[in-house]
Design a protein that fits this description.
This protein is of the alpha/beta class. It has one domain (about 1-185): HUPs (Rossmann fold, 3-Layer(aba) Sandwich). About 50% of the residues lie in helices and about 10% in strands. It has seven helices and five strands, in the order βαβαβααβαβαα. Strands 3-2-1-4-5 form a five-stranded parallel beta sheet, with helices on both faces. Helix 4 packs across helix 5 (about 120-130). The longest helix has 21 residues, at about 80-100. The radius of gyration is 16 Å and the shape is globular. It starts with a strand and ends in a 5-residue tail after the last helix. The model has no long low-confidence stretch (mean pLDDT about 90).
Length: about 190
């Protein structure tokens, strides 16, 4: 299975569950992550996790300017809005494409672990990506990883491994919204 990962903190529980049934390859494809130093930090932790788990990690192309241009029309959308739908759909479509290129017949993502993301929407985007690559026999692995304490389990493992959990999804708009929220709550920004 080609497993799309957004960051190391969201991934340990999902990897532990899936590696019992699948030979995994991790795919770090996240052109949405902003700024670049945050991208590099998340990629570094993903590489560390891949080394710990002894799983191949493939890095997708990082094109933040293109991503910002493609999503600018939804810059004021809330979390879980059209921007998120586009972003997740685009990343899952690229994961399906890469799975086909690599000769892997199943793909999935850790994204539904997040309490801020809709598993229904993520699974819908995964199924659309599956349909787009149906001629190659590529299948999306449906999941809601936050169920059965998945988020808490991953958080505990990540804390033990010293991974940093951020307070935003990774994109510039999510970062801006997290700063606004922290500022309005009287927290330091």
């Amino acid at each position: 299975m080609l497993l799309h990962i957004c960051c190391a903190p969201c991934s340990p529980h999902v990897i532990n569950v899936l590696k019992t049934d699948f030979e995994l390859t991790l795919y770090f494809y996240n052109p949405n992550i902003h700024p670049e130093r945050e991208y590099r930090a998340r990629l570094g932790e993903a590489k560390k996790l891949a080394d710990i788990e002894d799983i191949l990690l493939v890095e997708g192309e990082y094109r933040p300017r293109e991503w910002l241009e493609e999503t600018r029309q939804w810059k004021d959308e809330p979390e879980r809005g059209r921007r998120c739908e586009f972003c997740i759909g685009q990343r899952l479509s690229e994961t399906a494409r890469m799975a086909g290129e690599m000769g892997i017949k199943r793909f999935g993502t850790v994204l539904s672990l997040s309490r801020l993301k809709s598993a229904i929407m993520i699974n819908s985007m995964g199924q659309k990506a599956q349909e787009a690559f149906a001629e190659k026999g590529i299948v999306f692995h449906l999941a809601d990883w936050k169920k059965k304490e998945g988020f808490n389990i991953s958080a505990k493992i990540s804390g033990t491994l010293g991974f940093v959990r951020q307070d935003y999804c990774g994109c510039a708009y999510g970062r801006r919204n997290a700063k606004k929220k922290a500022g309005s709550a009287g927290q330091p920004v």
